[in-house]
Write a structure and sequence with these properties.
Pfam families: Glycos_transf_2. This is Glycosyltransferase involved in cell wall bisynthesis. Keywords: Transferase. GO terms for molecular function: hexosyltransferase activity. By secondary structure, the chain is an alpha/beta fold. The chain folds into two domains: 229 residues, Alpha-Beta Complex (Spore Coat Polysaccharide Biosynthesis Protein SpsA, Chain A), CATH 3.90.550; 37 residues. 38% of the residues lie in helices and 19% in strands. It contains nine helices and nine strands. Strands 1, 2, 3, 4, 5, 6, 7, 8 and 9 form a nine-stranded mixed β-sheet that branches. The radius of gyration is 22 Å and the shape is globular. The protein starts with a strand and ends in a 10-residue tail after the last helix.
């Protein structure tokens, strides 16, 4: 059995996979398996991935019978993993060369820790570094563990025996399933933050939780928070109001301003030069 299972959920990302694969082959720790589960890709991802992998037996490819979604796919990946220590790597991302070595050492030094996680490097579409996101050590079940600011972030690794004490990844969640199970892990065991930049996170238009999908990701994050509140019998209503009532009022003000700007009287005033500020609104 390998020391570490790298879990890769793929959906139409085969064209990004080469650098992901290269980063695994370049690891200083070589005793690993990479479990790839394709979630019904509609492009040639599987063929591309198989060609890139070649004859490396450490890569193991599986397929869902149909497109099942990220929650189902990641949950099944954990079931397929053979190692006690696991971590998710997206097929469009990559790892620093010493990533597996460092996380395995930390898991060994902190046997009680369910999660071990690091910083990640934001990269452009070609995986050129842009900036570093610093994670945070979580010690209490306070707002930090709600993960609004990615306090727990890539590279997230975990002990399977501790994960199995939770209800696991929720297959119902379409996005932000990681927020849900990170909270579950924090609720049952300590977690350990490593101040190292171990994960290269590619930003591109088709990313699940970036750009055009950001609002959807926020919605599913709140679904996870409501499930957490039910699990712990706490009230997150005030938190929701604090976060969104001011935004609602701001949106109302903008709508009122646009209504004024579009009125015939405002347009007439602008035409005859009465409202010099109009063009700046």
């Amino acid at each position: 059995m390998s020391k570490f299972s790298v879990l890769i959920a793929n959906y139409n990302n085969g064209h990004f996979f080469e650098k992901c694969c290269q980063s695994l082959v370049a690891q200083t720790e070589t005793d690993w398996e990479a479990v790839i589960l394709d979630d019904g890709s509609t492009d040639d991802s599987l063929e591309v991935i198989k060609k890139i992998i070649g004859s490396d037996s450490r890569f193991k490819i599986h397929q869902n019978d149909q497109n099942r979604g990220i929650g189902y796919t990641k949950r099944r990946l954990i079931d397929l993993a053979e190692s006690e220590v696991c971590g998710f790597l997206d097929p469009d991302d990559a790892l620093a060369p010493h990533a597996l070595e460092i996380v395995l050492k930390t898991h060994s030094e902190y046997p009680e820790a369910g999660l071990v996680y690091s910083n990640f490097v934001r990269c452009d579409e070609n995986l050129n570094p842009l900036s570093v996101h610093k994670a945070k050590q979580i010690t209490e079940l306070d707002q930090s563990y709600y993960n609004f600011n990615a306090e727990i972030s890539h590279f997230v690794t975990f002990k399977k025996k501790i994960y199995e004490k939770t209800s696991g990844i929720d297959p119902f969640l379409k996005i932000a399933e990681d927020k849900d199970w990170y909270m579950k892990m924090c609720e049952i065991a300590p977690v350990k933050y490593i101040d190292e930049d171990l994960y290269l996170y590619r930003i591109h238009d088709s990313g699940i939780s970036t750009t055009k999908n950001a609002e959807k990701a926020l919605f599913w994050h709140w679904v996870a928070l409501i499930k957490m509140a039910e699990r712990r019998n706490i009230n997150v209503e005030d938190l929701f109001l604090q976060s969104y009532v001011p935004k609602k009022k701001y949106d109302q003000a903008i709508n009122q301003l646009n209504h004024v700007k579009n009125s015939r009287w405002a347009k007439l005033g602008n035409t005859i030069g009465l409202f010099k500020i109009f063009k700046k609104l």
